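Q: Hi! First time doing this. I have a protein sequence and I read that you can turn it into a structure. Is that right? Here it is:
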Amino acid sequence: MTPPRLRPATRSDLPRIHAIRQGTTENRLTDPSAVTAAEVAWYMDEAIFLVSEDEHGVQGFACANHQTGLIWALFVADGKLGRGHGTALLDAALARLRSAGHRQAFLTTGRGTRAEAFYHARGWRCTGVSLHGEAVFRLWL
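A: Yes, that's right. Below is the predicted 3D structure, encoded as structure tokens:
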């Protein structure tokens, strides 16, 4: 198994990124209009937007807001879970947030999901529930 390779996302990655995001079984995007093209473009042009690849291509992606410390998205293709893509993406995004001067990061995710367990295992603490019913997590950097 080839270790994940990380790089900045490009516009040519967007079809695969959309396929990963819409193909997840957990934290499924039930309303694609909730994520606008303008938001995706901002993360790609202004913020932190990384992809993780293996020998078969892009298998995951992460977006983080360097201004607020928000991990906006972290998704790995269902068939590639447990192969290091999520950890590599999260570690790289957090390193970039630290470099931007953040002392904490935060995110939201579905409750009772594999993602929730993933963040708990990496030291994130649940601080409450969002208005949309998602778990709110914080990590001191």
